[in-house]
Amino acid sequence: MTTIVVAMDQENGIGFQNSLLWHLPADLKRFKAITSGHPVIMGRKTYESIGKPLPNRTNIVISRRKDWFQEGILIVGSIKEALKFAKKIDEDIFIIGGGNIYEQTLELTDKLEVTRVNTTCPADTFFPRIDMKIWRKSGEESVASDEKNQFDMTFETFERIIPLNAEQG
Ligand SMILES: NC(=O)c1ccc[n+]([C@@H]2O[C@H](COP(=O)([O-])OP(=O)(O)OC[C@H]3O[C@@H](n4cnc5c(N)ncnc54)[C@H](OP(=O)(O)O)[C@@H]3O)[C@@H](O)[C@H]2O)c1
């Protein structure tokens, strides 16, 4: 199962100037719970914005650069390669951004774990539109803002209406 994990605002905004749009510990906690113990795939820019490998997960970072090396991560040159390596490690793999990588992998993904943040922020990076002819919402849980989490949010799960591997049986 290949799952995209993303937090987006009401206009699908996900980032600005290579940073997240908010600091939401409740979302980070959920992200950690969902992805820990599994390979995570991300673009080079997202890796640089995080700044270090995420612990307890094989970090697979996609870049076209030939001269880029960072300790503690697996660097690959294409999405295909990232998926190939991740699937060798585990059945359940997670694609964690950013916008560029989401655009190229949405059509290769079985499931979306979306945190819909109840706000609209200035953003320069967006998640693609979720086409409800392709996806159906299979779960929803609302979380109210509190002293640590500035905005209300809804954890939404989407699954493909027609599974990716349906044709292969
Ligand atoms: N809200 C969220 O859930 C969330 C999650 C993740 C990230 N973000 C935000 O998203 C923003 C970053 O997203 P982004 O779209 O700018 O960048 P990105 O998707 O993280 O990374 C793009 C980079 O990935 C590499 N790449 C992309 N496609 C490739 C391919 N087919 N083959 C080889 N390499 C490929 C290239 O690296 P090289 O240039 O090295 O070749 C490209 O510059 C930040 O603001 C971040 O905070 C938000």
Automatic annotation (TrEMBL):
InterPro entries per UniProt: DHFR (IPR012259), DHFR-like_dom_sf (IPR024072), DHFR_dom (IPR001796)
Catalytic reactions of this protein: (6S)-5,6,7,8-tetrahydrofolate + NADP(+) = 7,8-dihydrofolate + NADPH + H(+)
GO biological processes: dihydrofolate metabolic process; folic acid metabolic process; one-carbon metabolic process; tetrahydrofolate biosynthetic process
Pathway: Cofactor biosynthesis; tetrahydrofolate biosynthesis; 5,6,7,8-tetrahydrofolate from 7,8-dihydrofolate: step 1/1
Top EC group: oxidoreductase
Keywords: NADP, One-carbon metabolism, Oxidoreductase
Keyword NADP: yes
UniProt GO molecular function: dihydrofolate reductase activity; NADP+ binding
GO cellular-component term (any): cytosol
Enzyme Commission (EC) number: 1.5.1.3
Superkingdom of the source species: Bacteria
Family matches, as PROSITE patterns: DHFR_2
Location of the DHFR domain: 1-160
Functional note: Key enzyme in folate metabolism. Catalyzes an essential reaction for de novo glycine and purine synthesis, and for DNA precursor synthesis.
Similarity comment: Belongs to the dihydrofolate reductase family.
UniProt name for this protein: Dihydrofolate reductase
Source organism: Marnyiella aurantia
Source taxonomy: Bacteria, Pseudomonadati, Bacteroidota, Flavobacteriia, Flavobacteriales
